């Protein structure tokens, strides 16, 4: 479930030249969507690479790809590997931008993020954004803990 802090969080802004990106934190649903994107990408690469093979081999390879994809998460080794592709990075950044900039396209982001310095700065902002929200949620949980009454000792 998404916390109220994450659902209503103000975006972090990033300016590059005359352009400003507004990066919002991702919700749990967004992370689930991104994992499905990574899983689908894994299967589509398998499909693309086995087109010249016999039908029997294609079926076996696709079954294996689908089984493997089912275990891909943003924290799994395969998920981390997939996240390093430029397409996956662009999708990740686009998901942070779409709430406040619905007209921004992945193609436009791809062009902007092709600049190595812009790429690094945007990813640093996203890391900062999620660190801020994680620490805010952790602090909120600490302050919400119920105090357990202690027994008074009899003297």
What order do the helices and strands come in, and which of them pair?
Elements: H1 4-7, E1 12-16, E2 19-23, H2 28-49, H3 55-69, H4 77-82, H5 86-97, H6 106-113, H7 116-144
Antiparallel strand pairs: 1-2
Helix pairs in contact: 2-3, 2-5, 5-6
Total beta-strand segments: 2
On the 0-100 scale, what is the average pLDDT? 84
Would you identify the regions where 5 or more consecutive residues have pLDDT less than 50? 3-7, 146-150
| Broad structural category | mainly alpha
The secondary-structure element order is HEEHHHHHH
β-sheet strand percentage:
5-15%
- Main sheet? 2 strands, antiparallel
Integer-rounded radius of gyration: 21 Å
Number of helices: 7
* Termini Cα gap: 48 Å
Silhouette = elongated
- Physical arrangement of strands within the biggest beta sheet: 1-2
DSSP helix fraction: 55-70%
